[in-house]
Design a protein that fits this description.
Layout (H helix, E strand, L loop, with lengths): L30 H9 L9 H13 L13 H7 L2 E2 L4 E2 L14
Antiparallel strand pairs: 1-2
Helix pairs in contact: 1-2
Length: 105
């Protein structure tokens, strides 16, 4: 069964929100934040800040921002399957945050 992750499942996979609720611009992120965001998509994370911002923009504009991978070696997915969502720190009784019901994985 394929696990489909969202940016809420992996810490650092979201661009975050501004106080008004809009998404933060990649140019306002720090280099470590940009690198984490890119690693959550399996993308290269080398280069100067301007290169990283361009790469994030390309992913967002190209519709690839929702293609999330677990850059932590499956730790976030494994936590879900154990009933603990590592991204949210919550225990799930019937299903995990990645949408897999217990007994079906």
């Amino acid at each position: 069964m394929e696990v489909v992750l969202t940016d809420e499942d992996i810490p650092g996979a979201s661009l975050g929100k501004n106080p008004d609720g809009s998404s933060r611009s990649p140019s306002h992120l720090t280099v470590p934040e940009l690198k984490r965001w890119l690693s959550c998509r399996g993308a290269r994370k080398t280069g100067k800040k301007v290169d990283l911002v361009t790469r994030v923009d390309d992913y967002v504009n190209g519709g690839l921002a929702s293609k999330i991978v677990d850059p932590d070696g499956g730790a976030n997915v494994a936590g879900c399957h154990q009933g603990v969502c590592r991204a949210r720190g919550e225990v799930r009784a019937a299903s995990c945050c990645c949408g897999i019901w217990y007994g079906h994985y």
